[in-house]
Amino acid sequence: MRKFLPILTLAFASLFIYSCDNNTDDEVQYVDNDTYSGVVEITRSFQYNSGANKHFINQQIGQYGMQDSDVALVYRLKSVYQGNDVWEQIPKTIYEVTTGREVDYDFDFTKNDVQIYVSGNFDVTTAPNYYSNQTFRIVLVPAGFLKSANSPVDHSDYNAVIKYYNIDDSKVVKIN
User: How far is CA 172 from CA 35, 37, 135, 167, in A?
Assistant: First the structure.
């Protein structure tokens, strides 16, 4: 019995040592290669859908491999200051204090498209600076980059988002 106990202990220890080996060939690591982060820039005027009573811009993004869990962020070109574009995140409400007018930008998205909406407390078609030839940037962020709900990046700051998600801003896809 004394010879059997050390052999049994050795066999038991060997079982644990083998099960802790992480260098097995049958382990597969998942890498998300079917989506990528990037930026699509569009410049368009809004269209009117009388059935839905909405002014909208629709942009297809399915060709970029968006997954159901990925995220699209949308920014509107507010102005150009000293040669630099000033982007504001939407949804956004713009208040004109002197006129009392209010303009609302909003959007929704699927893995196939992004729809951007504009509305106001007046006929927005009479304000070309809010309705016609608007430039938007759609930032595509794969779910793998979303580390937590408490992300340290300020999503309202376009440049901070580009930097945080390591997006090459020189490779913006421009669609008119």
Answer: 16, 11, 13, 9
Name 69's Cβ contacts closer than 8 Å, sequence gap at least 6: 143
- Cβ 37 vs Cβ 142: under 8 Å: yes
Greatest extent of the chain over all pairs of C-alpha atoms, in Å: 98
Secondary structure (3-state) at 5: helix
Retrieve residue 121's tokens. 């407390």
- Paired strand residues for 54: 49
pTM as predicted? 0.76
Helix (H) or strand (E) holding 7: helix 4-19
CA–CA separation, 117 vs 52, rounded Å? 11
pLDDT digits (tens, 9 = 90+) for 107-151: 999 999 999 999 999 999 999 999 999 999 999 988 766 555 566
Matching residue, tokens 């202990």? 9
